[in-house]
Amino acid sequence: SKRALARVCDPLHYACDTRDHLQTFIKNAACRLRKGGVFIGTIPDVRELDYRRREYSDNGGCSFGNEIYEVQFPDNTARKKLVHVTPYTFKLRESVDSLQEFVVGWN
Asked: Cα(63)–Cα(68) distance, rounded to whole angstroms?
């Protein structure tokens, strides 16, 4: 049966490495909602990622974080605007070691 609400917290920025994958994901979620249903998807904010990458990256590098986490972009993205499917690596102390994620742009 169709649902009134669908919520996704994690897989969008792991699996959506192309615009087609993102559109397929959203289409599949939408077809399982009843008319007027709501889809809630949470992802890292591309504007915040871009701000922190530019503000806190050292000497043109492409990483930021602290003693608990680190986000690292490929060096060739240092001066470029972040766009949909830009890859980055996420680390979380004692939990996640070098997980590749992708920028998801809703525009």
From this structure: 13
Q: Outline where DSSP puts E strands in the chain.
A: 3-8, 33-41, 63-65, 69-72, 87-92, 96-102
Confidence of residue 107 (pLDDT cuts 50, 70, 90): low
Rounded distance between C-alpha atoms, residue 15 and residue 86, angstroms: 12
For residue 58, name the pLDDT band (cuts at 50, 70, 90): low
Task: Please calculate the CA angle 19-24-30 and round it to the nearest 5 degrees.
Answer: 125
Please give the angle made by the CA atoms of 5, 85 and 11, to the nearest 5 degrees: 35
Instruction: Please tell me the pTM assigned to this model.
Output: 0.75
